[in-house]
Amino acid sequence: MGHTDVTPEVEAVWRIESARLIAVLTRMVGDVGLAEEFAQDALVSALEKWPEEGVPRKPGAWLTTVAKRRVLDRWRRDERFQRHMVELGRDLVEQDGSADFDAVLEEDYGDDLLKLMFVCCHPVLSTSARIALTLRMLGGLTTDEIARAFLVPEATVAQRIVRAKRTLAAKRVPFEVPSGEERDARLSDVLEVLYLVFNEGYTATSGDRWLRPELCDEAMRLGRVLVALTPSEPEAHGLLALMELQASRFRARVGADGSPVPLAEQDRSRWDRLLIGRGLKALMASLPEDPAERGVYSLQAGIAAAHAVAVTAEDTDWRVIAALYEALVRRTGSPVVELNRAVAVSMAFGPEPALRIVDALRDSGALADYHLLPAVRGDLLRRLGREDEARTEHERAARLTRNERERELMVERARPGDRR
To answer: Looking at the predicted structure, is the pLDDT value of residue 412 above 60?
Structure first.
C-alpha cells in the first residue's frame, strides 16, 4: 500500500478517542502525566503506520492496544516505573504479561472519564491550569490550539500543563470520584471550568474576535459527556441547558464584519431552534422539586430560556428575568450578577430604579475596572436624556475593555446621536 496523508483522520480520531484513552491509562498507571505520555506514544505510532497500513477499522482500539504495549514495555525495562506501580498496588505482568491489563482496558470506561474530569479540575491547581489541562486531556486540543483560543503564548500554556501534571503527581491526587460533600464541591469545580471555557468563547475577554465558537463547542461537548456520566446531577443539566440556549444565538450574535449585534437587534429567525429545544429539555431536567433549591446554572439557564422563547425582543418577559436575577444574586452575591439584574430591572420597570442599583455598585468599588459597569450606566443615562454623562460613561467603557470589537461598539455609542 502506498503512502497516504492520513493526518486529518489521525487528528479527528485523536480528538474523539484521546480522553477515553488517557482516562483508561490513568487508571492503570495512577498518573495523568504518564498516561498522556503513553497515549502520545500511540499517537506517534498512528502517524507513522497509518499512512502505509491505512486507518484501522477500529482506530480507538488500535490506539489502546499500542498504548498498552508501551506500558508493558516500560514495566519490563524500567525499575523505577515498576516501583511506582508496586506503590499503587498494581502488577501489570501476570501469567502471559497481558491478561490482567486487557481485562482492565475492556471494562466500562465511563467512570474513568468522570475521574479524569475530577483530576483535571482538582482545587490544588490554579484556575488557568485547570482550564488548560481539561482542554488538553479531555478535549484533545494541542497546546497551540489552547494558546490561540486564549491569546497567550504557546510556551505559557505548555508550562501551565507541565506544572499542573507535576502538582497532581506531587500531591498524589487520587484517580477517583470523591464521595459525600467532597464530591459535591469537586463537581462544582468541574462545572466551573466548563462554564469558564464556554464564557471565554461566548464573549472573548481580549483580541479582535468577539465570539470564539470553537471554545463553546468544546465546553458543550464536555458538558454532554458530564451529563451522560452524572444523569442525576441537576446542575450538570443546568449548565448544559445554559450553554445550549446561549449557543443557539451564535449565527445572529455577530454581523457580517464580525461586529457584535446586541440581543435586542438580533434576527431571531437565525437562532438555532434545535439547540433551543435541547436546551429547554436540559433545563427541565435541572429543576429540583423545591424551587428554593434551584442551582445557579439552572437559574441562568432559566434567564436564557426566557429570551429563547420570546418571538420578538418586545415579547421578552423582563419581570420573570428580573426575578430570576434576584434569586441568582441571593445565591451568589456576585456584583456582576447584580449588574445584570439592573439591566433586567431597567427593561421591566424603567431606567431610574436600575440606575440606583448601578450607582450602588459603582460606589462600592466592586466593579471599578469592569467595562460593562460604565457601559450599562451609559445606556441608562441616555434613556434618561442625560447625554453628556452617557457619553463619558461609554468612553470609559471603551478604555476599559480589552476586546477590540467591544471597544468599537463602545466608541460608536459614545458618539453624539447614537441611540443603540
So the answer is: yes
Residues 198, 213 contacting (CB under 8 angstroms): no
Pair type for strands 402-403 and 206-207: parallel
Contact predicate 252/239, CB 8 Å: no
Decide if pLDDT at 208 tops 50. yes
| Element housing 402 (H / E) | strand 402-403
CB burial of residue 22 (10 Å; 0-12, 13-18, 19+): buried
Helix (H, G, I), strand (E, B) or coil at 254: strand
Q: What is the distance between the alpha carbons of residues 135 and 30, in angstroms, rounded to a whole number?
A: 20
Distance between CA atoms of 302 and 184, rounded to whole angstroms? 22
Residues with Cβ < 8 Å from 323, sequence gap 6 or more? none
CB 244 within 8 A of CB 279: yes
CB atoms inside a 10 Å sphere around CB 232: 7
Spatial distance between the Cα atoms of 153 and 134, rounded to a whole number of angstroms: 18
**CA 26 to CA 18: how far, in whole Å?**
12
pTM of the model: 0.83
- For the record, the C-alpha cell of 282 comes out as 436540559
CA 168 to chain CA centroid, nearest Å: 21
Cα separation, 354 vs 343, whole angstroms = 7
Give the pLDDT confidence score for residue 373 in this predicted structure.
95
Burial 69-90 (b: 16+ CB within 10 A, else e): bbbeebbeeeeebbebbeeeeb
